[in-house]
Amino acid sequence: MDFSNKKNNNLNPVQPDKTPVYVNDANIKNPYQQSQFSNQNLSNQNLAENLGFNQPIHNQTRPNFTKKQLENAEIPNQIAKEIRLQKLSLTGIIFIGFVLLFISAFFVLVHYLAPIVNDSQLKIPLKFIPHPAVMIILMIFSLLFFLIGLIDFNHLRIGLKSYKTDLLMGVEKIPYFLVRNYKALVARPIYMNWISFSIYLWGGIIIGIFFIIKTATKDNPSMNTEIIIMISILASTLFIHIISLFFTRARKGNISAYYGYEIVPFDQVKDIRKRTNRICMVIFFVFLTLVLFIVIIPWMIVRKNKNKPIIPFI
């Protein structure tokens, strides 16, 4: 026997297969591959649940329930209370806007009709008719309040219909209009504080100017109407300010008490507060700058050119 040949055959290395191997070859069996995908799916599922991506998605074809069916939908008491408060708030905004719009338009109309008709037909003394500039500004703001109230009320009606449809379909989730209202409730006290502060500041300055003009001028013009209007505006602002802060806190507490947590994450709440304060601060100082450079400084220049003291009554 040729042991040398056998030995040499055993020592020859086995030639590997020349078939190219790719990374994504389906023939390769990785014993850890299935477990990796399983863990990845599990982690993605948990992440989706934490982020709220597994919320029920509205289909494009939703059942069109009748008005009677929508009225019979059972809404939780806390959510129903929040809806009533939101409707009451929007109704109040619409009513106040309408009343102020009517009053301002009435006085503007009376002011321009006064030269045409006599006092006996107007039955309003001319000294009680305010200047049209103040009434026109009030009319613009009243119109904005009125339109904003109508638009928000329509949005609430549409959102409430969608929420009732979800309840009848057995879908339970936080309604969009409730999240939107909660974000608005976070920003509302900041807006109210800035608006009220501005009204208190400028209203007090205007009332002081009216008193100075009334007591220091020789003609002694009657400005009782303007002073009464400004005092009424300040008193109404204080009342609305206090009531708004109280209702805002009550509504936020009612929503959080029902769900057991704040429906808007704390980071978003912090961002909303920061952004709202920044917007209000920019608007306040821009308005202050406009008043300074467009009204006060040109007025002082005109008085100086007429050889009058820059600051009157001094």
From TrEMBL:
Entry coiled-coil feature ranges: none
Transmembrane segments: 88-113, 133-153, 190-213, 225-247, 279-301
InterPro entries named in the record: MSC_0882-like (IPR059214)
Protein's UniProt keywords contain Transport: no
Chain spans, region Disordered: 1-20
Biased composition (Polar residues): 1-13
Swiss-Prot/TrEMBL keywords: Membrane, Transmembrane, Transmembrane helix
Record protein name field: Uncharacterized protein
Species of the source: Williamsoniiplasma luminosum
